[in-house]
């Protein structure tokens, strides 16, 4: 999956998928395609070419990878967070219908009042994936939540820091690491 330089360094370029109707409306996502703006912006972005690549299994990641010129293999560990019964609803709708549940979820990374995946489980999944990366270069097209989790892990930040990281559509974050130590840089 990656080329292996003699340095033993992993160089990971995380690319957030392009916009969808869910991102435009601030809706907890399902498996939706890119919207017209997302498709246009992804196609206009600098192509990433024939680099080794992986992606989240969802349609929005597949379409973004294709638009960037990547032949990316799906990886279930790069799947978006499971938002359970909140999928397809806006944050405002959830806040109006379940204010205590939403407040708990935003305050406690181990909580999953929506019946889906808690932030701590997402952090564990992404941390495990990062730990398994071999030396070399790879591109991963994935979701804002997965990139947030990778940044929190790379920075050695507590789980509560997850909500302090914003990731825009098509944002790029580079992680460079060896032996479990990561350095990160962000490219808008």
UniProtKB/TrEMBL annotation:
Protein name: Broad specificity phosphatase PhoE
InterPro entries: His_Pase_superF_clade-1 (IPR013078), His_PPase_superfam (IPR029033)
Organism the protein comes from: Streptosporangium becharense
Pfam families recorded: His_Phos_1 (PF00300)
Cited SMART domains: PGAM
